[in-house]
Amino acid sequence: MIQSSSVSVCIANYNGMAVIDDCIRSVLTQQGRIDVEILVHDDASSDGSVSHIREQYPNITLITSTDNVGFCIANNRMAAMAKGKHILLLNNDAVLYPDALQTLLSAANRLTEPAILSLPQYDARTGKLIDRGCLLDPFFNPVPNLDPLRSDVAMVIGACLWIPSDMWHVLGGFPEWFESVAEDMYLCCRARLAGYAILALTTSGYRHWQGSSFGGNCTVNDRLVTTFRRRALSERNKTFVMVLSYPAPILQLIFPLHVMLLLAEGLIMALVRHDHKIFTTIYGATIKAVWFQRKRLSTYRHLMQAQQCARPFEFISVFSGIPHKWRMLMRYGFPKIQ
Maximum distance among all alpha carbons in the chain? Predict the structure, then answer.
């Protein structure tokens, strides 16, 4: 008997010919008789993805874009068309374990209140556990949760993010002006402020080819490797989320320190790498973006704080006190930006 709750799996694709088949097939071969629809948004791919998906998967809802609009708009478009009671956002470079949807649906049905869920994330190259959701440090850097006994987290990665459709629409989806990167952090912080739980499950999982869909965000020969674009979007959007989310007393203390540390980091990185572009295109650009977007940030912040149900202590209860960048520097040294 088919379960009454249906799931809409939304896959954002851009030049994903190397990974899209594994992703889609992992959804099509899920265990359990679950009513599933698959939506794929192709973001102006140039590698033949559109024709391939159309020919190989005729039953999939394929949305094509003539312009590269980014992850936020792509997922908002799919969510607007989704018919399922639940939405699963899935990267094109992610591959679900066979029991993934069954695990997520069972967990959602057991909960008395709607919540954002995710599964353990494993490195597709090595099979190593990457995280069970993430905590946040004081400067909104994600800190991987590896504790099998901890399910309450600050955020889950958008590569595999489960959310009830009604909850998605109440929260307003992703802010399209983010473009890409940290939109998952924004959605989870907004949900936590509104009193919803963010839960990382401990069973099943998904394999993720980190960095293949956007570049960077991975280690190569035990070195952190990223791109100028990813790092710029990451620093900018994490700062946006900090401004939007922190309760006023905490923001007044942390934000000036955050700005000083960002500028110092940018100057040191530029000197170490002998490349002034690191400062101007990443760190200096982040501060400029906050200034130029100050009216929009003020509007969004007022909306999010007005909906706040969680007390300040509850909001920061899933934060780690040690800056994560310090840990990463001690382990990997300065990242390579290319």
Answer: 63
Q: Within 13 A of 332's CA, how many CA atoms are on the CB side?
A: 18
Amino acid of residue 41: H
All residues at 6 or more sequence positions from 255 whose CB lies less than 8 Å from its CB, including other chains:
242, 243, 246
What are the CA-CA distances from residue 59 to residues 98, 215, 276 (Å)? 20, 30, 50
In what helix (H) or strand (E) does residue 116 lie, and over which residues does it extend? Answer: strand 115-118
What phi and psi, each to the nearest 5 degrees, are found at residue 104?
A: -65, -45
Q: What is the pTM of this model?
A: 0.94
Q: What are phi and psi of 96, to 5 degrees?
A: -75, 145
Residue 206: Cβ within 10 Å count: 23
Q: Is residue 214 very low, low, confident or very high in pLDDT (cuts 50, 70, 90)?
A: low
pLDDT at 308: 77
Q: Alpha-carbon distance 307 to 196, whole Å?
A: 11
Collapse the DSSP code of 240 into the 3-class scheme (helix H, G, I; strand E, B; otherwise coil) and give the result. Answer: helix
> CB–CB of 279/267 below 8 Å?
yes
Convert the pLDDT of each residue in 14-52 to its tens digit: 999 999 999 999 999 999 989 999 999 999 999 999 999
Per DSSP, 152 falls in state B
Tracing tokens 């280690």 back to the chain, one arrives at 219
